[in-house]
Amino acid sequence: MFIEQVKNKSFRFFLYLPIPVFFLVLMIANYMASSEMNTEQMIHQTIAELGENMTFFWSIVPLSIACLLLWLWVKVIHRQSITSLTTSRPKVDWSRILFSFGLWATISIVLTLVVYFSHPENFTLNFKPGPFFIFLALAVVLIPLQTSFEEYLFRGYLMQGIGVVTRSRLVPLLITSIMFGLMHIANPEVGKMGNIILIYYIGTGFFLGIMTLMDEGLELALGFHAANNLVGALLVTSDWTAFQTHSILKDVSEPSAGFDVILPVFVIFPVLLYIYSRKYQWKNWKEKLTGTIVFENKEGV
């Protein structure tokens, strides 16, 4: 079982606390800073000074480095293998990561093409070969690290840690999903569309959390999240998103949070969970999502 992976590790509660406490303080500080300044204007100003590619680089590098630091903390401080933080399987299942990446990348491309051809007036061609391929090289390296950090932090480190402390599966699912959504509260999309967009972010957190608990590992969530951010950043940009990049297309329409929130959370994500459940033969949904965790070895907990 995925959460139980830490039962035979050197888990110490006081060593577990620094990362969630630090991240919580960072989230609060980030929210307070964003409430005092216009995030969208700040991004535009940075782009005017550094350009899109360098702005992207400096905005994403901290999270990419944080991924490496989190792995180091888990390995050195907790003496826990990265494999056990990733999956309950004997080794990381790369076929799961690639399947999930390919599935969501394909769906994302198809949906983007449908929207583009149905409403071409909402888009302009933004493709510039030189800047695009530089951005592509940066994105392929940095975005998977950024998305992996978020998955390892929320669906890995926090999911396992909260599960150990509470002996519950439902509690870490609820906490990590809500925290994941609130982490995006300082994004310019929230300022542009309103707090209703948090339904999408929190809904995505629940989707990824359910996927992780049902599949007993992070592989599917890692693949989905990487495809979501990478393909999205390469295909479409706009003047009001967190990632303003040298993408192929630029969305020039006026943003609104309605159908774009409802469709993924209440239609697409349930369909994807059904596809995953059929492919990987998920069973015992109630037990895996809401059951009590029992540890045979309670040493160090």
TrEMBL record:
Leader sequence segment: none
One term of GO molecular function: endopeptidase activity
This protein's record includes keyword Protease: yes
Transmembrane segments: 12-33, 56-76, 97-118, 130-149, 170-187, 193-213, 220-237, 257-276
Single Gene Ontology BP annotation: CAAX-box protein maturation
Domain CAAX prenyl protease 2/Lysostaphin resistance protein A-like, first and last residues per copy: 133-231
Entry keyword set: Hydrolase, Membrane, Metalloprotease, Protease, Transmembrane, Transmembrane helix
Protein name: CPBP family intramembrane metalloprotease
Lineage, highest ranks first: Bacteria, Pseudomonadati, Bacteroidota, Flavobacteriia, Flavobacteriales
